Automatic annotation (TrEMBL):
One of its GO terms (biological process) is DNA restriction-modification system. It comes from Thiospirillum jenense. Pfam families: EcoRI. InterPro entries: Restrct_endonuc-II-like, Restrct_endonuc_II_EcoRI, Restrct_endonuc_II_EcoRI/MunI. It comes from the Bacteria. This is Restriction endonuclease. GO terms for molecular function: DNA binding; magnesium ion binding; type II site-specific deoxyribonuclease activity.
Amino acid sequence: MAKKDELRNQREGTIINATSKRQEKELDKALVLVCERLLQKFPGIKLKHDKQWLLKNVVSALKEIFPEIDFYYYHDTSFMKPDGGILNICDKDDSKYPILIAEKKNQGTNDLRIAEGKGKQAKGNAIERLGKNVIGFRTALLQESIFPFVCFGDGCDFADDSSILDRVVTIAMFGRLNHQYLHNAAGSRFNRGSFYFRVQEWTASEMAEICYSISEKSVYYYYSKYDETSFF
């Protein structure tokens, strides 16, 4: 059975989403390449990779930074879990500073349905879930002047004539797709993040190049803001 056929069948609970799992592995490969390059570029740097970010930790940090603002969450076990996790650098006190938050989304089976003579299905599920995570990560990094978030999306739902692209653009605060936005703009009011979307599947090497660029610049940002000597 083709991978996209498996993706369609998961709605009935028969199998796991093989397409997404395979592509997450490609993102994992990309992250390994990124870490190798960072360790070569910044000897002595301490990297920490987290698979998830607990909401209670986000809220705790926000309350300390913005004591005049009310923050709330319900459950201690709730978390945000991007497909590629959160890559951090650590200072001498083991405090963590995110340099890369990576997501990977595949969406679209209508190409298969049309080939089979069937009608199109509704689009958008993966993107709606993405929007929730982006809100959370943006809020978690409000104290910084960068937003080292990147999402790679591929599949027929992201063709040039697809309305889904405008949903992605909206999540990107109306920034351009396939463009890197790391540093916040207009007094940090626009902490957009980077969104790379197309029909063709992203390879590990392609994602690694983009992820490394974001990570490297993020390291320099923290070195400048908090003093490089704080990290060694």
